[in-house]
Amino acid sequence: MKNLSINIKGKLHYFHNPWVMGIVNVTPDSFYADSRTFDSQSIYNRIADLIEQGADAIDIGGYSSRPGAADVSAQEEYSRLASALEIIRKHFPDTIVSIDTFRADVARKCVLDWQADIINDISGGIADPEMWNTVAELKVPYILMHMRGTPKTMQSLCDYSDVTADVIKDLAAKIDKMRQLGIADIIIDPGFGFAKTLEQNYTLMSELQEFKRLNMPLLVGISHKSMIYKALDIKPENALNGTTVLNTIALSKGADILRVHDVREAKEAVKIINLLNENSR
């Protein structure tokens, strides 16, 4: 399991040491206000801060996926992403960049115009039937997330016979289809908060090690999500402590990538878990 890797532009990147992926939202309405950036200076400041904190990669989104989020045109989404990509390629050219989009055309333009490294598709190929063919053609790593429906409808689609088994089965079926298309580098994401109840999210976390059976890098994205702030009856901006607790649990169960708003705290969790593993008897 420790030999898992992805190929980025001809170079293998291993997950001996779990990655921390910092979130940049070029949106006015993402659920976590502190992650929103919209003008050039705030985008630069956000990226610079995440890199200074030790981010292994940056994930840039231009379309809010919170429940009930407003629709954004493909042209507007690309414009938002391009504004951040221009800054990151000018000032931080060696940074690994993931693009958070479910649209194949947007993904293609970000890779071809700005050399984006990874495509992060919250829909897992559902929203755009051309996405997988595009990823196969571009030969970039792909984050395959589990979701049902759309951000507007997903919370009405939480009926599972066994949430962990059903999510794994769905991801495995998609992985098989993607392999047939020639997609080599796949990262899996259980999709915490997407078409899952609060209780189902915690069942997934308690059984997270089961996803390692798929033998692919495992990404966990629970940063400041409702499974934390609703459970604790607090606001999203006060959910850092709960985020760190769950990130630490996720690492202990085999997470290879943490997608977070607060990089420094996540890097500290990685360091502590590494020390624990290195000194266990």
What does this structure look like?
The chain is of the alpha/beta class and 281 residues long. The chain is built from 9 helices and 10 strands. It has helices at 40-52, 74-91, 104-114, 131-138, 163-180, 198-206, 226-232, 240-252, 263-278, and strands spanning 5-8, 11-14, 19-25, 57-61, 97-100, 118-121, 142-145, 186-189, 219-220, 257-260. An 8-stranded parallel sheet has the order 8-7-6-5-4-3-10-9. A two-stranded antiparallel ribbon has the order 1-2. Strand 4, helix 2 (74-91) and strand 5 form a beta-alpha-beta unit.
Offer a quick outline of the entry.
The protein is of the alpha/beta class and 281 residues long. The chain is 40% helix and 15% strand.
Features:
globular; two-stranded antiparallel ribbon; 9 helices; 281 residues
Look at the structure and give the mean pLDDT: 93
Strand content: 5-15%
- How many individual helices? 9
General shape: globular
The structure class reads alpha/beta
* Cα-atom radius of gyration: 17 Å
**Biggest sheet statistics:** 8 strands, parallel
What share of residues is helical? 40-55%
Placed side by side, the strands forming the largest sheet appear as 8-7-6-5-4-3-10-9
**Element order: H for helix, E for strand:** EEEHEHEHEHEHEHEHHEH
Could you give the count of β-strands?
10
Which consecutive residue ranges, at least 5 long each, have pLDDT under 50? none
Measured between the Cα atoms of the first and last residue, the distance is: 20 Å
